[in-house]
Specification:
Blueprint: H1 11-21, E1 29-30, E2 39-42, E3 47-54, E4 60-66, E5 72-76, E6 79-80, E7 87-92, E8 96-101, E9 110-117, E10 123-133, E11 136-139, E12 153-160, E13 168-173, E14 176-182, E15 192-193, E16 199-205
Parallel strand pairs: 2-10
Antiparallel strand pairs: 1-3, 3-8, 4-5, 4-9, 5-6, 7-8, 9-10, 11-12, 12-16, 13-14, 15-16
């Protein structure tokens, strides 16, 4: 007697089998290479804390600020849970969960944690540190500089943004732009720096 056994595979089983044979994990995980690490920003900038979650399934993603004595829930999925209008929750393709912070202030510094929670109360987390520094801009030998008539005046602006490079520098007199350095149209790839790593810009004023 010959027995013929038939195995019925559902589409879900076929997908799981295909993923397994291809070495693709179906487990929910935070993709660290596509998520934010520790960040340092200058006061007044906009920063995005990004948490990229793969294979989310029926789980939820939240951003929590780790503050003593009680942690503060900042967002849940695409819902903002802060009364501060500078904070906003954003979601892209239900994979990239972002906590956007506008006009960053010193008080925003600290630890933030991305939490992925499931219906069985299991969770995975990723913690990032946000450091906020105060940028400093000054004109050397200022604010009052004396110069002889008909001579050339060289003004030097020194910018200290920690280890960050300014996107651009603008010299302005009242409503007139005298010089623009940086941006996509920048001729030199890098701004000049002194030995302490502070960025320098020079403006030459004739007569």
């Amino acid at each position: 007697m010959i027995l013929l056994l038939l195995f019925m595979l559902t589409s879900t089983d076929m997908l799981a089998l295909s993923d397994s044979s291809a070495g693709v994990s179906s487990e929910t995980r935070i993709e660290e290479s596509l998520s934010s690490g520790n960040l340092t920003v200058v006061q007044g900038e906009t920063v995005m804390l990004v948490c990229t979650v793969l294979n989310l399934g029926d789980k939820s993603v939240s951003w929590v600020r780790l503050k003593d004595p009680n942690p503060q829930l900042m967002s849940l999925n695409n819902v903002t849970n802060s009364q501060n209008p500078r904070f906003r929750a954003l979601v892209s393709d239900w994979k990239e969960f972002v906590l956007l912070v506008k006009n960053v202030k010193e008080e925003d510094a600290g630890l933030y944690q991305c939490q992925v929670s499931g219906p069985k109360h299991t969770s995975i987390t990723r913690t990032v540190s946000l450091t906020v520094i105060e940028g400093n801009t000054e004109i050397l030998d200022g604010p009052v500089i004396y110069v002889d008539p008909l001579s050339t005046l060289t003004l030097t602006c020194r910018v200290d943004f920690g280890h960050k490079t300014p996107e651009f520098l603008i010299w302005r007199k009242e409503d007139k732009i005298l010089k623009f350095e940086g941006g996509e149209g920048m001729v030199e790839p890098y701004l000049e720096q002194d030995q302490q790593g502070r960025h320098l810009s020079h403006l030459h004023v004739k007569e």
